[in-house]
Amino acid sequence: MSDTSTIDAPGDSPDPAADTPARRRRVAPLVVGLIAVAMAALFVVLATADSGTTESAGSPLLGNLAPDVHGVNEDGSVFSLSRRKGSWVVLNFFTHNCVPCIEEHPELIEFVDQQRALGVDGAEFYSIVRDSTRDETDAFFAERGGDWPIVYDPDYEFVNGFGVALVPETWIIDPNGFVRRRYISKVTAAALSADIQSMREGGP
Predict the structure, then answer these.
(1) Domain regions of the chain by residue span
(2) CB–CB of 168/187 below 8 Å?
(3) Distance between CA atoms of 200 and 175, rounded to whole angstroms?
(4) φ/ψ of residue 123, rounded to 5
């Protein structure tokens, strides 16, 4: 009677790394977990992007006197930043066709309304125009609203003095003329008002 049993050849032993059903059962939960983590991270990023949160940024100017720069008012007179001491001053750099500038504009309108409601304690707000003509700027405000002082920067004193490479960018200067905040990208009325109020009350 012949022996029909077989003996595995040395090269036929099972590969521990082989794609067996047991191995697939072990790997599947790990893959699902990684996908879940990735989806959660994406959700957080999207939620943050849509929330319009105000992003502060560093600068050598923070904590120092603001540069003594000059621009041109709408009526052609000289605007001197150093003469605004005694008030909280907010500078917003913008260009008429900048998409984030357009998106944040309703927030700026709300912020200015909030500060005006405070009377003499409210912050002064100025739009610093970068690379837009008078006609382009007038059309921007005629279409989107907003009624506050506009300062033109023909000699780039503001842009160079504050080191503004991209718009929008917003700065807060305290009544003593010291730079307190720099914000890159879009800002919100709520964040600006809260930051200024905190600083009024002695916050950093």
Answers:
(1) 17-51, 55-200
(2) yes
(3) 10
(4) -75, 145
Side-chain half-sphere CA neighbours of 41 within 13 A: 6
Q: How far apart are CA 178 and CA 184, in angstroms?
A: 18
- The pLDDT value given to residue 22: 53
Helix ranges (DSSP H) in the chain: 21-51, 99-116, 134-144, 157-162, 189-200
User: Among 194, 204, 52, 202, which Cα is nearest to 123's?
Assistant: 194
Place of tokens 């590969």: 15
Helix (H) or strand (E) holding 64: none
Looking at per-residue pLDDT, the higher value among 198 and 46 belongs to: 198
What gap in Å lies between CA 90 and CA 139, rounded to an integer?
23
Lowest mean pLDDT among 55-69, 80-94, 102-116: 55-69
CATH architecture entry for 55-200: 3-Layer(aba) Sandwich (3.40)
Angle at 36 between CA 54 and CA 19, to 5 degrees: 150
DSSP one-letter code for 35 = H
Q: What is the C-alpha separation between 35 and 40, in angstroms, rounded?
A: 9
Q: Which amino acid is at 23?
A: R
Q: Are 168 and 185 a contacting pair, CB within 8 Å?
A: yes
User: Considering only CA atoms, which of 102, 118, 91, 104 is closest in space to residue 189?
Assistant: 104
Q: What is the pLDDT of residues 38-71, one digit of tens each?
A: 443 333 333 333 334 466 678 899 999 999 999 9
